[in-house]
Amino acid sequence: MLFADDGPPPRGEYVLGQGFSRDMIACRRLVPDARMWPAELDEGSEDGSRRRIDRRSLFRIAERAGQDTADAWAAAQLYAAIAIWGAPPGRPMVRALRPLAQDAAPKRFAEALQVVRGEGPESAYKALSYRSRLWINGLGPSYFTKFLYFGGYGAKRHMPQPLIMDDNVIAALNIVTDEPWQASSEHYGRYLDYAASWASELGTADDVIERRLFQIGE
Known about the structure:
Helix content: 55-70%
Structural class: mainly alpha
Radius of gyration: 17 Å
Largest sheet: 3 strands, antiparallel
Strand order of the largest sheet: 1-3-2
Number of helices: 11
Strand content: 5-15%
Distance between the termini: 16 Å
Number of strands: 3
Number of domains: 1
């Protein structure tokens, strides 16, 4: 059972409010090109240089990037924000930001954004996979599915929604389904189908399921 008898919580704070406080001056120093810095991260000061970054703020950046999917810098800004948000608190985010140092990264992120919003999440997953046409060295499924989620969620209502599939989600799927799971395009598609089905049965959003799986797998 994914949730207690009272069912899933509202999507608002449970999903969109998931976030962390970051030192944005320190984060900015880690971004390899000033054009990759999203201005939205300079808003909402908490204390000095610290800002809170949550899923809601990332969706704002994604909305801007989605308005012009040919804008490679906007796509790179979305990934930079995702890397800053996605790094576990207290852990260095250098590794998560490293893919942006490659010259081809902004263009490939922009193309991946076009694919997920046009052809759908499974096609985008395949395109970003190791040695595929949009592969970016150092960018694995844990982070590129975050990019697909924020960049493509809600773009195609009739298809399963792109969701994050990191190690915690995979661990939870192993527990909940009693089936073997791994990071692959085939298993990603199966996971999206499961999440859509569970969301429909429970009367909730697909990313509420993902958020719950993340908790189970922690």
